[in-house]
Amino acid sequence: MVAAEEANIESGAGVAVATMEEEKRRLRMRTRDAAYGAAVRAACAAAAAVSMSMMVTAEESAELDLYGFRLPVSSKWSYSNSFVFLVGMTAATTAYSLLQLLLTMLGLLKKSKVTTNTFPSRNMAWLTFTLDQAFAYMMVSAGSAASGVTNLNRTGIRHSRLPDFCKPLRGFCDRTAIAISFAFLSCVLLAASAILDVLCLLNHHYRY
């Protein structure tokens, strides 16, 4: 009987050790996923911030040579609703990414049970996945609208004699092009965050 009790104790200890090892493995996986998520969030916030800063500093004045006449021209990002929309979306994306990064870093520092974005529940993980997609779609919309205006500035209007405004306003056009490029990069990073959210939902188990 004593031998049976000792065997039960050893069996229970073995189960406890196995359970502890499994918990450690899951914690390492969660920590790894959170680290990947933090890196993507930081990159997304940086890309959106660069896009916003390049756009809000896009302003230039010059003279346009039109059939021998020197006409003063000036351009500023606030003159175009599409550029204003892009600035607003990049500002919102920067704030959103920084908030998610902060939550992720707090979760890593506390070594708590975290998802990719440090949300402990499945509902919160799905909410983050939805927000990532929503911001990505809105950034695509803002970037596409802004690129249409930039392309018009570079090529003029077909079948008309509207000149290429980017020749005298080269600096302005270059800044807007860089801003749009980083805006699309932030779209890609938001999509990557959404993919990480899905992988996290598939790899981890939640009580609710």
Automatic annotation (TrEMBL):
<feature type="transmembrane region" description="Helical">
    <location>
        <begin position="177"/>
        <end position="202"/>
    </location>
</feature>
<dbReference type="InterPro" id="IPR006459">
    <property type="entry name" value="CASP/CASPL"/>
</dbReference>
<keyword id="KW-0472">Membrane</keyword>
<dbReference type="GO" id="GO:0005886">
    <property type="term" value="C:plasma membrane"/>
</dbReference>
<feature type="domain" description="Casparian strip membrane protein">
    <location>
        <begin position="36"/>
        <end position="189"/>
    </location>
</feature>
<comment type="similarity">
    <text>Belongs to the Casparian strip membrane proteins (CASP) family.</text>
</comment>
<comment type="subunit">
    <text>Homodimer and heterodimers.</text>
</comment>
<keyword id="KW-0812">Transmembrane</keyword>
<protein>
    <recommendedName>
        <fullName>CASP-like protein</fullName>
    </recommendedName>
</protein>
<feature type="transmembrane region" description="Helical">
    <location>
        <begin position="34"/>
        <end position="58"/>
    </location>
</feature>
<keyword id="KW-0325">Glycoprotein</keyword>
<keyword id="KW-1003">Cell membrane</keyword>
<feature type="transmembrane region" description="Helical">
    <location>
        <begin position="78"/>
        <end position="103"/>
    </location>
</feature>
<dbReference type="InterPro" id="IPR006702">
    <property type="entry name" value="CASP_dom"/>
</dbReference>
<keyword id="KW-1133">Transmembrane helix</keyword>
<dbReference type="Pfam" id="PF04535">
    <property type="entry name" value="CASP_dom"/>
</dbReference>
